[in-house]
């Protein structure tokens, strides 16, 4: 029987389960993207476009879903997520060429974006006094789901030699679970609506110059974290250890870091966390571009510490210091982040292909050419966190002593 009371604990648990599904799609795609290249005769740029489609779909769902959250309610948007995951998995399994893979990946991307479009403002609403801490704790299940998906992918594909279609079917189980749980729960109003801030006031807050500055920073943080993650199999494919295990290692560290984000927030505050993260992300990418063998895990650990807090802390900062932007602000941030990854993935594929071709022309064999291409591409990506170090230093100087903005809720 449906319960008509708001149950924050159950809403948070189910939000985490939905985010696990979202994360597993990224991990599984990172493992099978090379298989798609062989099965469908696709080059690096084409694979980048397919992988990027998931991010385009994610962005579309957040940009469209963000304004609709307050008009239709959160629950209707989560319906889109559930049915999108089911349809996207089935379409991908049945794919026969580039465009069918493109369509299936797009549907999954829309579903993933709908999860975040709903759950980010939901968590900010039910934990309105602990936003950065609880958004980090919620988002620990993105790397947590990546670890789970990566390990399942490793054992099914590399150990048991099962088909990639069987691996995609695994996604249906947690999808059915979160769908069933969410449909039985009641959702609250968004924090913006409960506080009495007008819809037009929210729209005005979302076009302010400082909010737009944060959107640009989100573009760079997301590209650094997720662009690297989606190309990990190619970039680190020749370092002497399985790239999918490095992927799992990075995401395991990120999950632990986000779980214990509370003490870090207390010590550094959100702006200090962002500056700290950009420094470690840059150092990690430089080290990864030179590491080989088991040293790669150490370099990956530094990178993981760097990117660990980027996404949830960017959302937490906006929600705490610019709460008037409401659910729309959170979804613009998330949409901009995913859009940037959709843009950078084909570029990264192009950089990798060009760097590989350059190494082959210089006389390297296939394996050495791929190793050098990965290293050169990582060096290019490292420019992004260097820009962020400058941006977040400015942010830290401006906001280190500024109090958070707390909205008064109407009763």
Automatic annotation (TrEMBL):
Places the protein is found: Endomembrane system
GO molecular function annotation: transmembrane transporter activity
All copies of domain Major facilitator superfamily (MFS) profile, residue ranges: 11-400
GO cellular component, as recorded: endomembrane system; membrane
Record-linked Gene3D superfamilies: MFS general substrate transporter like domains
UniProt keywords, alphabetically: Membrane, Transmembrane, Transmembrane helix, Transport
Entries under InterPro entries matching the protein: MFS, MFS_dom, MFS_trans_sf, MFS_Transporter
One Pfam assignment: MFS_1
SUPFAM superfamilies documented for this protein: MFS general substrate transporter (SSF103473)
Transmembrane domains' residue ranges: 46-65, 77-99, 105-126, 138-157, 163-185, 205-223, 235-256, 268-288, 294-318, 330-352, 378-397
UniProt keyword annotation of Isomerase present: no
Membrane topology qualifier: Multi-pass membrane protein
Family according to the record: Belongs to the major facilitator superfamily.
Protein name: MFS transporter
Source species: Chitinophaga oryziterrae
